[in-house]
Amino acid sequence: MNNLELVAIFERIADLMEIKGELVFKVQAYRRAAESLFLMVSDANQVLRDGKLEKIPGVGKAIAGKIEELLTTGKLGFLEELEKEVPPGLLEILKVPDVGPKKAALFWKQAGITDLNGLEVAASDGKLRTLPGMGEKSEGRVLDGIEALKRMSKRKLLGEAWPVAREWLEWLRQIPGVIKAEPAGSLRRWKSTIGDIDLVAAVINPEQVMELFTHHQQVARILSQGEKKSSVELKNGFNIQLWMQPPERFGTLWQYATGSKEHNVHLREIAQLNGYSLSEKGLLDAAGREHPFLDERSLYATLGLLWIPPELREERGEIQAALTGSLPRLIETDDLQGELHSHTDWTDGYATLEEMVEAARKKGFRFYGITDHSSGLGVAGGLNAERLMQQRHAVHSLQEKLGDSIHLLHGVEVEIRADGSLDYPDEVLAELDIVIASLHSGLRQPREIVTERLLKAMANPNVDIIGHPSGRLLPTREAADLDWEKVLDGALKSGVALEINSNPNRLDLDEVYARKANEMGILLSVDTDAHRPASLDLAVYGVSVARRAWVEADRVINTWPLEKLLGWLKSRK
DNA sequence: GCCGTTTTCGGCCCGACTGTTTTCAGTCG
Which CATH class is domain A259-327? Predict the structure, then answer.
């Protein structure tokens, strides 16, 4: 059993306990433990062997015992008992918007509903409206919620959400009375996947703006409408939530709506320690006076904290760092001096070598890596060694034409085969300027085997970068089941850089492992893996992963000046 | 169920919106 399976089990326990009506703090304890396991890089099996389960934050005697039982027997008596008491089918009705644990329990105990299908039938038959606290409207909301769930059960990708959000912000900003409009929520924190699009606005005439917002032609359905907050479902499947306050309260509103929830809870605890009560309206002091804030910086400062970049606001130590003045100076997209992972129509790219290089030049890059696929990746029309050398000549003659306006690095994205060997012999790889080794197949191999493959590839001195290390594809394809502690140790020992792939469908290295790698001193490379010129603009998403991983610019090899990068590449040979 | 430079017991954020209620519970973020 791996860490993610433990996470799923403890979340399941928390949900079931909540429906059962257990103390909320008990439920929260299980959720906290699940979050800790999610963030933990070490394999829980190893932590158990080391006798350190109770060192995990949020894990005490009781939960440690349950982890041990799960890891040693594969089962958990406590959960089996719980599932006898609470029908597990109820968990799927928790996913219905506006249905929480209390209503789930009500439907179950008073109407005998035990799964989503049962709920839909009961609602259609008008059997929910007679339950205590329910009525016709609530019954209708349940039906609407089930429909909504069917339409869009998945979270959206960050790269899909931003263009929609930008369009709406532009629209909002041209409305008279809207002083300011900005992104908030998980979008502003640049999470890899987004639930709703949260927007905030400083507004003089909230009633009018809310009317315009909820009656926008792209709105399919109004989910809620108030004077400070409204929520709509769009025809394109996105949900947008808009929060408003008068301009003088914009700082607290923006801070509040940006979250994360856990970050905000901690911030309010700090406020309490300082004798305040914090809400989106402002700070309330002990005398009951409200202190509004125009901007976030002054709010954080009043609480004795440095301003915290939104990407860090996940309650992962950022508040402590802001208290002690030890926040990192996060990497920015402008720090990137070049691209190291790209493709052309020599393999599965959509543009010629010349077109890709021209796009890179236009972006002002100092260097550019051309790394097409190796022969093993048949579906991508990978190059055999002979074709690779032909391409090398093409790159060299292009370089002659271009002079020193941009430095071209000719390399390859070489396939790591099922046995961990690479697609080209060492003498071919040794000739190249840069070598990225990637897994594309056999991602479902058992943990030991797939981990060993990666370790073997990293140990080859010709390999400079490991491309999209986990092989995940958002939101569908799971990452390879890697032993990350071993992978990161291997990277540290071999000195390879790990790629943060900027494609919104990958964002791989994941932020959790990127942060650990960064702490260990492993080098990173933020690359787009571009298959067409426009994709070079995706770097902002890879940078956002690095920022969420607390990464500073000098840890990322393609922020380096050309000479430093060339020196590093040379030293790898 | 976890946790502790104010606590080993008593805490564990705060408000908007909805729909059901006649002042509040449930859900959400």
Answer: alpha beta
